[in-house]
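Hey team,

Filing this mostly as a record. A colleague (T.K.) asked me to run one chain through the structure pipeline before their review meeting, and I want the input and output archived in the tracker in case anyone asks later how it was produced. No errors, nothing strange. Just documentation.

Input sequence:
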Amino acid sequence: MISVQNYTDPYFQQVLDLLNQSKSFDSFTEPLLKEKMYDDPTWNPEHTWMALHKSKVIGFMQGVTRNIRGSKLGYIKLMAVHPEFRRQGIASRLFELLEKQLSELQMEALRIYDVPLNYFMPGIDPRYTPAVCFAEKMGFKKTGDAINMQVDLMATDWDASEKIAELKKASIEIKRATLNDKEELFDFISEDWMLWQNELEMAYRFAQPAIFIARQNGRLKAFAAYEGNNQGTGWFGPMGTHRDLRGKGVGNVLLYLCLSDMKHQGHTSATIPWVAPIAFYSHYANAVIDRVFWRYEKKLKNE
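Output structure:
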């Protein structure tokens, strides 16, 4: 007999075990799962469902919501069904409950995994064939791809000192961000990159913030961060440069400072997720495309 109920904290370890049993190309640690669940800006256990067999969690689905530039969107953030219990309609049963809840909240559409602000993957890795089949069975349509790139941190020392000195002569100062810079940094991202605020908040959690900034004549004009998402796994980003500084090598320097930090912290490789400027990272960091993800969406008809 399989029962369904909302998630509660005593099942955390079982959910962690289930995800690791179900994800052959990924792994979860306790801190990482807590980040994905409890640190989500809209975490709600009432939107998180479990299927149990003899008191053992054999299915899991976490739902979250976002308001993205005025659009109300719902997401399946994490999902898993134990391999021994697949093809029994468990994921469909969990999804029907979640879909009903998110429809009642007037979400305009549902998406899978590619959750701005806090996410594990920017879409479905198509090697997880059961997830692809589930999405299409439930009425989701493929809308595009997302790409992760990988950097070999051992390939170089990522020294940017000469370039930093050159930029200083042009009144461009590069430094690690401090709490005193936080208000100005968040003002800077408010127009074009507001969706990155949560990731920068995460990067500010460290004694030494995992953020570097560039100022031109005293005004903040660029930033780069790491550990803003999936902390402890070597994720770079986000990064942004004002049009005034583009083409001057500022982004290159900020990237190198972040990669240097990650290398000295013991990482041997870095992930650059959800990449748009593939050529930039390939040129400056010899990054290679590592994984491709399929993005899915289902429009909702709200009455």
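Quick notes for T.K.: Residues 151-291 form a domain with the Aminopeptidase fold (CATH 3.40.630.30). The chain has a mean pLDDT of 96.
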